[in-house]
Design brief:
- By secondary structure, the protein is of the alpha/beta class.
- The protein is built from 13 helices and 10 strands.
- The strands form 2 sheets. It has an 8-stranded mixed sheet with strand order 3-10-9-4-5-8-6-7, with helices on both faces. It has a two-stranded parallel sheet with strand order 1-2.
Length: 345
């Protein structure tokens, strides 16, 4: 029911997934008067889904506390998350109110053992391929331990999604030198240097331009700077696409040149398509929840659903649990005393 367009985007989006992923079944939660007439237009989707009418829908401008207090047990958002908790669904996908979705997901699913706060992880296109960036909006002002937790969560996601044995992990900072940055970031760097799990390769600090370069597989930051970086990158991609479109239509020669190079321009357009990277995964919860961008279209929502599909199929939660267990076992292990220096007699 959420996002800028509600069921008008969500239903055709999951219909696309139904066509591409015939092994998926859907539980749809929403207001009957708005959903059922639209669902009739998609017979393929209707055949592989169950519709559950709900009394209310969380509004996009509801405060998280208000939505949690008034929307529990009867809102479409709560019931969709609860389906994951009860084992009726493997993943919940919503384009609705981000704060409400996070509050309800944390309250209903609870965080994993040792995780204080969850993070939202986004996929980011790079020159080389893709990387995971977290947090992009869940936790503002994370401390050192939370940043370390994010590194473990992000590495587990990269391992599950990209099939990389030892993902490279970097902490986003204002410089690569160890003396730079906020104390929380420097302390997190020290902790990762001393006790990073063997399943990740901590490379140190990275700067903003390293994200697009693909310097690392996982970029770790707190939610304030991560969200700004994400929205800036999306805006830049749209700006470049508009510049190219205007340039190709400016003169007759430009239009003729486009005809000869349209294959290359099509590949560039696909790279700049922010819809393909739509979907933020809530990491650190006892369940998989994916937040779609509220302003996306049906193809973008389909991408968010397919991201959740990949996270479940590649056993994200099991990977995260294993990595957290290894890390805390490393912290608890007694450190060997340095050998006494021998002296020449």
């Amino acid at each position: 029911m959420g996002g800028d367009h509600g069921p008008a985007i969500v239903l055709p989006g999951i219909d696309r997934v139904a066509e591409r992923r015939p092994d998926v079944r859907f539980l749809i939660y929403g207001i009957a008067a708005e959903v059922e007439p639209l669902l009739e237009r998609y017979p393929r989707l209707k055949a592989v889904s169950e519709f559950h009418p709900c009394e209310v829908a969380v509004r996009m401008d509801d405060k998280p506390s208000q939505a949690l207090r008034q929307g529990r047990w009867k809102s479409s958002m709560w019931k969709a998350i609860e389906a994951v908790k009860n084992g009726e669904a493997d993943v919940c996908v919503s384009a609705g109110n981000t704060g409400a979705l996070m509050a309800m997901a944390k309250f209903c699913l609870r965080t994993m053992a040792t995780i204080e706060r969850p993070a939202i992880a986004a996929l980011w296109p790079t020159i080389k391929s893709e990387c995971v960036v977290l947090d992009v909006g869940a936790t503002i002002g994370a401390d050192a331990q939370q940043l370390v937790d994010f590194a473990i969560l992000g590495a587990a996601m990269a391992h599950a999604l990209f099939q990389i044995e030892r993902p490279k992990v970097g902490l986003l900072n204002v410089g690569v030198e160890e003396v730079k940055g906020q104390e929380e970031v420097k302390e997190a760097g020290r902790m990762l240097r001393e006790a990073a799990p063997a399943s990740m390769e901590y490379t140190g600090f990275v700067e903003g331009d390293d994200i697009a370069k693909g310097t690392v597989d996982v970029v770790v930051t707190e939610g304030f700077s991560g969200n700004i970086a994400l929205k800036t990158a999306e805006g830049t991609a749209k700006l470049i696409a508009e510049y190219l479109r205007a340039a190709m239509n400016r003169t007759l020669m430009a239009r003729i040149g486009y005809l000869f190079a349209r294959g290359a321009f099509q590949r560039l357009r696909e790279k700049l398509d922010v819809r393909k990277a739509n979907g933020g995964v809530f990491l650190g919860l006892n369940g998989v929840v994916v937040k779609s961008h509220g302003g996306t279209d049906d193809e973008g929502f389909a991408a968010a659903v397919e991201l959740g599909y990949d996270m479940v199929r590649r056993k994200l939660l099991a990977t995260i649990s294993s990595e957290l267990e290894r890390f805390h076992a490393t912290l608890a292990a007694p450190r060997a005393e340095p050998a006494a220096a021998s002296r020449d007699m």
